[in-house]
Amino acid sequence: MNVHDLTTPALLVDAHALTANLADMAAALPGPRCRPHVKAHKTTALAKLQARHHPGFTVATVREAEGMAAAGLGDDLLLANEVLDARRLGALDARITVAIDSPETLQAAVAGGVREVVIDVNVGLPRCGIAPERAGALADAARAAGLEVRGVMGYEGHLMLVPDEAEKAKYTEECMAKLLAAHADVGGELISGGGTGTYRTNKWVTEVQAGSYALMDTAYTKAGLPFRQALTVLATVISVSEGWAVADVGLKALGMDHGNPTIPGAQVWFCSDEHTTFAPEQPVAVGDRIRVLPAHVDPTVALHERMHLVDGDEVIDTWAVDLRGW
Amino acid sequence: MNVHDLTTPALLVDAHALTANLADMAAALPGPRCRPHVKAHKTTALAKLQARHHPGFTVATVREAEGMAAAGLGDDLLLANEVLDARRLGALDARITVAIDSPETLQAAVAGGVREVVIDVNVGLPRCGIAPERAGALADAARAAGLEVRGVMGYEGHLMLVPDEAEKAKYTEECMAKLLAAHADVGGELISGGGTGTYRTNKWVTEVQAGSYALMDTAYTKAGLPFRQALTVLATVISVSEGWAVADVGLKALGMDHGNPTIPGAQVWFCSDEHTTFAPEQPVAVGDRIRVLPAHVDPTVALHERMHLVDGDEVIDTWAVDLRGW
């Protein structure tokens, strides 16, 4: 099939860019050194390619854990997020480890029948995570409640886009000092953290939870990371006026939290529900197909039912985005 | 069922607010004076309530037309958007009218087996629509190609949030003068346009394409419109730290193009994929359920598989958001 036969808007994944990204990460962080995060692509077909290189996965939602288990990718799933209802996790035929950062999330793991946890430690990003000095006590309580404590995790998400490498390394070391201090109290084999933005920088974790590297983001590309932008949204030009044109991709096909998408060779003016109005540098015609770069890949993928693997204009596979929802 | 039994994040629709909104619009623009736009809620169960008052509907995508037809709501569907592949429309067991603004979209309607069109006229919003002075010629070409031309449409979307009523009326009149001039050349019974923001202002159209009034938006509420905010996202507090807390609703549960959501009694700091970090004015506890107001309803709904109709904390119905995708 040719991309021109696809209904638009449609997610396209460049096969060469994806293959190169997966190979580059596998070379940099082979095997268990990388625990790919599936929240970035929500697609088990893509995760199966990652599973050739890496034995475990990171997930953000119960639904993602369920879908990965159902796809036979449940050998070692880390739900790197807090969960108050873990019953669906305990029922899975998979190895599930869940993050906890409070007595309530500890109790939820026990009540849900989860057997393994990591202690989520706040390393500076104001989000989830227990204060480092309290991590040991939570681990003790978890073990007392019959849980296996596999170690710690901490996400330095606020450092992912620091442009200067030396500065990023300094801040990452400060964050990881907190995680290592917590780990000294907690124990366990896992020190999990990091992401695509710090995959070369973070030398302190035992595994990096990288997600964006597979499909890549405009923001990460600008930050000088070596991975290639593999994801675009295919759109059709549906209207041309004097001075602007309109493509059939809008707010419901694009993650907008990082702002407007990019159209090579054009200035994007604004997006509506199902439209992007843009000023092309060269004339375009009604019916033209164009490729739009979303500003943020993760929430873009969450809006689509499927993604098409392409080699140039040839569609070589179509994958269900089968990990959407909660 | 109680809302506390729902998996979060979950879309909630307040039954009283929804009922009042539908009744208020039906009183202001009874019968065919309003052609409700389903893109705002993408839910045929909700459209069935609107169909008690209004005979026709507006849709934005081919998928929405298909879903409405399948739900028995296809008596008079206006696809108020340009389409280059109309084959799925022509195959529907429904009355389909499609907007055209170019020879290419005219040909697509013919090729797809669509029989009725409206001429989409640009009235000032730089998006789709033919220049008013060229509308008559396009209508002639459409009739020559065997199509029925039902009239014109024009959307003054750039005026929806003008705060001053007199100013909005003046600008709307200017826009509608263009649409009426085009209509004089085009003919037909339909002069379609407007939206929730101009439903009281626009006295020139024969029907208003209002969508947001049913569930309502933060932005429209601030603009002084009388409808009530019916839609919230139910979330669970999953982590509490000194100075902030985290709810399990993020970029994949919220339309972000209008910015961060609102949490009553709290300051929202930022959203991540599956988290909102906020500073509550009163202490919250892990496990608390909170209601989050998305900044933009339409793209929020597009991220959810279902919405729950609630009366206080009681879930009285659950509706599939069955018009998602393309």
Task: Give structural notes.
Two copies of one chain form a homodimer. By secondary structure, chain A is of the alpha/beta class. In chain A, the strands form two sheets. In chain A, strands 1, 9, 10, 11, 12, 13, 14 and 15 form an eight-stranded mixed sheet that branches. In chain A, strand 14 (306-311) and strand 15 form a beta hairpin. The first copy, chain A, is built from nine helices and 15 strands. Chain A folds into two domains: 3-11 and 228-320, Lyase, Ornithine Decarboxylase, Chain A, domain 1 (Beta Barrel); 16-214, TIM Barrel, CATH 3.20.20.10. Chain A is elongated, with a radius of gyration of 21 Å. In chain A, helix 6 packs across helix 7 (165-186). The model of chain A has no long low-confidence stretch (mean pLDDT 97). At the A-B interface, strand 9 of A face strand 9 of B.
